[in-house]
Amino acid sequence: MNLDKIFLDQGSGGRSSRELIEKLFIPKFKNSYLNELNDSAVFELGGAKLALTTDSFVVDPIFFPGGDIGSLAVCGTVNDLAMRGARPCYLSAGFIIEEGFLIKDLEQILFSMEKIAREADIQIVTGDTKVVPKGAADKIFINTSGIGLVPLHIDIAGQNAKPGDAVLISGNIGDHGMTILSSREGLFLDSLLKSDVSPLNHMVQKMLKTGSEIHVLRDPTRGGLATTLNEIAFQSQVGIEVFQEAIPIHESVLAASEILGLDPLNMANEGKLVAVLPEIYAETVLAAMKETSYGSGAALIGWVKAENPGKVIMKTAIGGKRLIDMPAGEQLPRIC
Amino acid sequence: MNLDKIFLDQGSGGRSSRELIEKLFIPKFKNSYLNELNDSAVFELGGAKLALTTDSFVVDPIFFPGGDIGSLAVCGTVNDLAMRGARPCYLSAGFIIEEGFLIKDLEQILFSMEKIAREADIQIVTGDTKVVPKGAADKIFINTSGIGLVPLHIDIAGQNAKPGDAVLISGNIGDHGMTILSSREGLFLDSLLKSDVSPLNHMVQKMLKTGSEIHVLRDPTRGGLATTLNEIAFQSQVGIEVFQEAIPIHESVLAASEILGLDPLNMANEGKLVAVLPEIYAETVLAAMKETSYGSGAALIGWVKAENPGKVIMKTAIGGKRLIDMPAGEQLPRIC
User: Fold this and answer.
1) Are residues B170 and B115 in the same domain?
2) How many Å lie between the alpha carbon of B26 and the closest alpha carbon of chain A?
């Protein structure tokens, strides 16, 4: 890591981000919750088991097919809570707005936030608004933090994957990343391609209601599926083997990735989850996912292994094996 | 309110901010917690009575006498929790960093955050880092959100002031605002003048430990004492009368304010609180405040009245009366 200045890479969610966090943030704020590097911190307070999470959103453009910075800001935090098995309850919203920003755009963003909040059944209960002079910020940045209630018996975390576990994905990967890229660069892609931004908490509740044991849930946002699988392999000290053919990818994402030389495995998703769970529950949970609108494309994509701890290996269609690493740097800044 | 573009005024914490929030945000996110417009939302979850709050910090300069954006970010959220009588427990931290920002500056900021967190006895348990391209943000913005535990019998809120209540302030007003102004403009002020940024939760705990009833606590940050008193008068539908001579102001803040034509009542504070409580408890609570380092300059500055609901009136040194309004616009952008 360069120890002089901050680079764009360090906000990528990939390897450089991890290095920055491990070398700078963790040693300063060391505590058992932060050290776990999960989507939310889970702790007990006043007898309640709670999850707390935060995310700042700086996406560019702020409006894109399928959503906007407002829907992203609510879904991102709702999903980070859901990934710990929490029922998301209350959200805060902090706005940093550039002077001169159009009120009608702000109204549109608030409308999206409210719509997703209603769908996710959470309340935005506290907020903050700062306005900075023109040029001191680009349009609008939104931070959301959220609090959720975790059932006492639930323990879903990145370190819980076990050899033999099945690895599921809830649908197509790369839709959000490719949508942002194509909106920004003015690429003509399939007009049906849009961001998958969506709140996943109701799907998670349905998965939990089957009574199945779930070891890990994680949403493959910045850094994509490659990063998420590597994080799980690292945190649980297990190997993960996935089958290339089993990973669902939208045709136009695949086509555009090939033309642009990008890997859909590294592309951001904002409405997908990875679930790791004992094989005996895989079929039941997959069926529960498929019954929901956001999980209709769910698939079993691989298995957790004792071999190659910390590594993710992909079996290719032609029978080869490829090591899947975390993307080293920044594929696309301001993706979320 | 201009309904076309966002103006700097609307981030001032004064009247324009209030209008923006009341006209745009509240109607969209309507719920009983947000409508109260208190420093934190207080709710029950899993049997626990909790407070949740959020604040984004965009102060310029990021380093100033007495503190930096890091100490401000932790104190701001700790204090917003304490103002509801909560014991602040856990914090989240979200960073938006401009590409090229110096690592040594980031380290200094993290150091300040950790130092204040230790003093305030809270843990930073979850975080997020985004890096934006050069020019898309000015240096660094920090959001902190916090969660605190509120004792079941405590009900401290802006709407609880009652006629006959005493109004206390914990010390000199305007130190933070004048420090930022003078650092930014290169004014030569008393070299002893520095920001009052400090965590007030331990002082609040000492005030509560006296067993006194406290109706309202609020920290007069953006918009200053004038805004805070007006908010309390409005929320409680009471009049507030304060004595000009009783309001403690540092000599150099007073002198500089006169030269610059600014009103210290409108100037931001980051380590002060206003307490409103029944007269019978005033002396006890004042004594408890004075025993703490951050409350050594505490004073009784006025009384709550039934007359003139929603209005704040100042009795001047020469026996006159002056209506204290909320500052209409922006006195100093990026004060916190």
Assistant:
1) no
2) 10
Tell me: do A34 and A131 sit in the same domain: yes
- For an interface test with A, the pick among B28, B62, B331 (most A C-beta atoms closer than 10 Å) comes out as B28
In a domain, B335, yes or no: no
Instruction: Please report which confidence band the pLDDT of residue B144 belongs to, taking 50, 70 and 90 as the band edges.
Output: very high
Same domain, B128 and B198: no
Residue B332 lies in a domain: no
- Statement to judge: residues B98 and B181 lie in one domain: no
Whether residue B224 is contained in a domain is answered as yes
Range of the domain at B290: 158-323
Q: Which of A8, A34, A137 is the closest to B126 by Cβ? A: A34
Note whether B73 and B185 are same-domain residues.
Answer: no
ipTM metric:
0.95
Whether residue A210 is found in the same domain as residue A318: yes
- Which secondary structure element, helix H or strand E, spans residue A148, and what is its range? strand A140-149
Q: Is A53 on the interface with B (CB under 8 A)?
A: yes
Whether A122 and chain B come into contact, CB under 8 Å, resolves to no
User: In this structure, what CATH number is given to the domain that contains residue B37?
Assistant: 3.30.1330.10
In a domain, A332, yes or no: no
Whole-model pTM above 0.80?
Answer: yes
**pLDDT band, residue B246 (cuts 50/70/90):** very high
Q: How far is A155 from chain B (nearest CA, A)?
A: 17
Return the closest-CA partner of residue B235 out of B312, B299, B168, B166: B312
CB nearest to B334's CB, from A48, A94, A132: A132
Alpha carbons A297 and B228: distance in angstroms, whole number: 53
CB of B83 within 8 A of CB of B218?
yes
Residue (of B308, B235, B331) closest to B274 by Cα position: B235
Please state the φ and ψ torsions of residue B216, each to the nearest 5 degrees: -135, 140
Instruction: Compare all CA atoms of chain B with the CA of A89 and give the residue at the minimum distance.
Output: B45
